[in-house]
Amino acid sequence: MIKNLTLPASLVSEIEQNSTTIEVPKNIKIVSKGDLMDYVPFIKNGSVRVFIEDQDSNKEQLLYYVGGGETCLMSMIASFGDKISMVSAVAESNSEIIKVSNERVRIWQKEHKEWNDLILDLFLKRYWDLMDTINALSFQKVDERLYSYLKKEASDSGELKALKTHKQMAKDLGTSREVISRTLKKLQQDKKINLSNSLIQILK
Predict the structure, then answer these.
(1) Predicted confidence band at 16 (pLDDT cuts at 50, 70, 90)?
(2) Distance CA 200, CA 5 (A)
C-alpha cells in the first residue's frame, strides 16, 4: 500500500484486497479526456502530470502534478459520479498506480471515518493547486508564470536541471516554445535566473 498514508491496519488490508496496482512507464498516458472513470487512482510511487488539452489547436495546459500518496481532484470528481474524465494524465516518471473501484470507495465512505478524512485532505490539496493555476492564468503575465513555474520545479538550493525542453515547458504553461525561449532570456536579463547548457539557477 501507499507508505506515507496513516490508516488503520484493517482498512489497509481491505484496500490491498480490493484494489489493483499497475506499473506505468515514464511518458505513458494514464487517462485521456473522454475516458469513463470507473475507479479512483492513487499514486503509490512516481509522479503524474495532469493537464487539459484541446485537440483542435493541439495545445495543453498543466493543472498540477500528483505525487506519491496523492490522487487527482478531477479524476475523483469524475469517478464519484461515474462520469467521463475532462482531463488527461501522463506519467512524469516511472509510476505505480493503485486503482480503487467507485463501488468500493462508496462503501469505505460509509464505514470508515479515516477514509473520508483522507479523501477530504487530498481533495483540498488538489483544489488549492487548481486555484493557483487559475489565478496564474487569469492575472499573471507569461514571465511571472514561468518564473513561478521554475521556482516550483527547482531544488531547495534554487537549482533546476534543464531536463525539460522549451517545448515541454511551453506545453505546461499553455504557450509556444518561442515564447518560452524569449521569456527565459528576459528573466536572465532581469537577473532572476542564470542559464547554462544544462542548468537553470534561481537568483532571487
Answers:
(1) confident
(2) 34
